[in-house]
Each structure stands twice: as structure tokens, then as C-alpha cells.
Write a structure and sequence with these properties.
8-stranded antiparallel barrel; two-stranded parallel sheet
């Protein structure tokens, strides 16, 4: 709970304390779309199994507000496709299982601007994000004896409380995943005037299983991890 409050306060402080009217008038707006490589941690230490990563997408709206000549507030609204894919081959029986949630995500990043020339500017930065689950699928496929059996169902979101990360009614497993996700993004990119290339690494801080407590910082199991690369088109 303390982690989430700190992230919320940090985001509010960044927005309220660093943006003035003159900077806001120079805001660049745009749209972005690109590729995600998604995974979910599988241990209390936050370890990842690279074989469970899968390719998916991101898209959204971008707002870049200059904060003087050196810094920039980069925010917007993203549609982030996340999740995990597990495959197995046991005695000729091949199986795959994919959890693919779709989130609406609000990132709040502070960038350091690194001008290359008058038109081209690189940047690096970081900041918190908050996300809410909108939909997604859980799919499975089993191939045995030349026969393929497939299933697909919508993700059932647990009604977890975003203020403490636990299920409201205390019932573990009341949904497939928690609806709310919180975390930190590390970002970097290059702007070429009306076009840019943006990269990010999203580090989820929420245990995505309903009823799983987030108050123990040592428990990093079932947290989203996403590498993303996007093209950005500014208006």
C-alpha cells in the first residue's frame, strides 16, 4: 500500500509542481503504436523465464511538455497488451497456454533532454504508471495424436481494492487477474521533429493474482514486465 501511495503522490507532485503555463503552451501531442515483448515474473525474487515471453502490441496518445530547456514531462494514455505464454512438449503432446490482458495505462515520466541538433533530440527518463484492466483473453491449445483442441475465454477481472492491492471480500482466486496494476517505467527515445522512436521497460509492482498481497516487498511473484518499442507521430 505504501508503494502505491508514494507513486500516486509522486505523479501528483510532478504534474502540479513542474508544469507552468508557458511550458504547457509548447506541449507536443501525438499518437504512437508499436511492439511489446511481455512476460510475468515467476518467483518471490522477481525472476523471469525468457521462454515464456511473447510478442504483442502497444498503442496510445502522447503528450510531451517541455520543462525549461533540459527536462520534459512525457505522459498520455496507452493501451498496453501484457501477459505470458507457456509452452510444453511432453511425450508428443504439445500444449500452449497464453494469458493476454489489455490495460489502459497512464504513465507520468520525467525526461532529460539530450539535443543532437536543432531538430533531433534524444531523451531518457523514468516515472510511475497506473493501469486498469479493460479486457483480454486466456487461450490454450493442445495437440495430441494429430488432433488439436483449442479454448479461448475472456479474462475475469478480480474486484481488488487499488488502495491496498488485496481482494475486497478476502476471497483468493475470485478472478483471473487483478484489474489494477501499478509500476515504474524506464524510457528513452529520439524525436525527429514530427516523428519519434520511443522505447520503454515497464516494471510492474503489483502481484497480478487476486487476493495476493503487495505489502511484502520481497514478494515479486506474478508482476508484469514489458519491453516496448513504438513509433510516435506528432500533430
Amino acid at each position: 500500500m505504501r508503494q502505491k501511495r508514494l507513486l500516486t503522490l509522486l505523479a501528483a507532485f510532478i504534474i502540479a509542481g513542474t508544469v507552468n503555463a508557458q511550458d504547457f503552451a509548447k506541449t507536443k501531442l501525438g499518437i504512437k503504436a508499436g511492439w511489446n515483448s511481455a512476460n510475468i515474473t515467476n518467483s518471490r525474487e522477481g525472476n523471469l523465464d525468457a521462454s515464456k515471453r511473447f510478442n504483442t502490441f502497444n498503442a496510445g496518445f502522447v503528450a510531451a511538455v517541455p520543462l525549461g530547456s533540459t527536462f520534459e514531462l512525457r505522459s498520455g494514455l496507452d493501451f498496453q497488451s501484457k501477459g505470458i505464454k507457456i509452452t510444453d512438449d511432453d511425450g508428443g503432446v504439445k500444449s500452449s497456454f497464453k494469458v493476454n490482458p489489455l490495460y489502459l495505462e497512464l504513465p507520468v515520466n520525467i525526461d532529460v533532454m539530450l539535443p543532437i541538433n536543432e531538430k533531433i533530440k534524444a531523451y531518457i527518463g523514468a516515472g510511475p504508471y497506473a493501469a486498469v484492466g479493460l479486457g483480454g483473453k486466456i487461450k490454450s491449445e493442445v495437440v495430441s495424436g494429430g488432433v488439436t483442441t483449442s479454448t479461448s475465454e475472456n479474462i475475469h477481472w478480480g474486484n481488488d481494492n487499488p488502495t491496498d492491492g488485496d481482494d475486497r471480500n478476502g476471497t483468493v482466486g475470485s478472478g483471473d487477474m487483478k484489474r489494477f496494476d501499478f509500476g515504474i517505467n524506464a524510457i528513452g527515445g529520439v524525436d525527429f521533429g514530427s516523428f519519434g522512436i520511443h522505447a520503454q521497460y515497464g516494471i510492474g509492482l503489483t502481484n497480478t493474482i487476486p487476493g495476493g498481497s503487495n505489502n511484502n516487498n520481497a514478494n515479486k511473484n506474478n508482476q508484469n514486465r514489458v519491453i516496448g518499442v513504438s513509433g510516435v507521430f506528432y500533430f
